[in-house]
Each structure stands twice: as C-alpha cells, then as structure tokens.
Amino acid sequence: MPLKTEPLEEPTLNLASMLDIVMLLLMFFMIGTQFKNQEREYKIQLPTVSDAKALSGQPDELVVNVSRDGVITLNTRQISIAELEQELAKAIQNFPAQSVLIRGDGASPYQNVMEVMSAAKKVGVRNVSLAHQPRAQK
C-alpha cells in the first residue's frame, strides 16, 4: 500500500467573500437611513384622536387579597376601600369587561370580603369571582 508523500495542504481563511457581504450590509443600512430621513421631510399634519384605547386583548384579571385581619392588597400594595374603588374605576374605564378575583382568607370575617365585593359592584365591575381551594378527596 503506497503512502502519501505529499505534504498536507494548510487550510486558509478566504476573507474576500466575508468582506463583500460586510460591504453590502453597510451599503444597505446607509441607504436605509436615507429613506427614513426622506420620509420625515413631508409636511404632514398627523390626525389626533381623543379617546384612543389600547388595541391589545383583555388584560389579566385584577387580584384583590383580603387578609385575616382585613388588610386589602391590590398588586402587592396595601390599599383602603376608597383607594380600591378608585383603582377599579380606572380599570373599568379603560377596559369595561375587566374581571376581578377576590382572594379572602378562610379565617377572615366574611364582612371584609363583602366590603370588597360591594366596592367592585359600586364602580360597575360585572365579572367578579371568588378564589377557593377544592377539598382533598378522602
């Protein structure tokens, strides 16, 4: 079996094609920025709207926590019933179908949860739900 007597060819790095692509990208971005400047040169008065609302989907439900001692928490912030009404009113103004989830401590007096439900009803929240845990099967 004859052995190769030729020396192995050393690999080389051909930078010509990479430089061509870099130059093409550079020209592309330079020309693109010129189009952006020309677009802004038009003397156009853009229309305005008074009551624009977000085009996104329905936001996540607001979670109101009622602790055992009656402290009300909305978005990890302790608030009073009056502040809760203001926050819910803002949410309903932005998204009329805003839903609210009330999480009341099981050992808390029922009156605390009813005050939160009353505040939600007062500002017009129509989708109120109460959180619960299912009992373990025996």
UniProtKB/TrEMBL annotation:
<dbReference type="Pfam" id="PF02472">
    <property type="entry name" value="ExbD"/>
</dbReference>
<protein>
    <submittedName>
        <fullName>Biopolymer transporter ExbD</fullName>
    </submittedName>
</protein>
<dbReference type="InterPro" id="IPR003400">
    <property type="entry name" value="ExbD"/>
</dbReference>
<keyword id="KW-0812">Transmembrane</keyword>
<feature type="transmembrane region" description="Helical">
    <location>
        <begin position="12"/>
        <end position="31"/>
    </location>
</feature>
<dbReference type="GO" id="GO:0022857">
    <property type="term" value="F:transmembrane transporter activity"/>
</dbReference>
<comment type="similarity">
    <text>Belongs to the ExbD/TolR family.</text>
</comment>
<keyword id="KW-1133">Transmembrane helix</keyword>
<keyword id="KW-0813">Transport</keyword>
<keyword id="KW-0472">Membrane</keyword>
<keyword id="KW-1003">Cell membrane</keyword>
<dbReference type="GO" id="GO:0015031">
    <property type="term" value="P:protein transport"/>
</dbReference>
<dbReference type="GO" id="GO:0005886">
    <property type="term" value="C:plasma membrane"/>
</dbReference>
<keyword id="KW-0653">Protein transport</keyword>
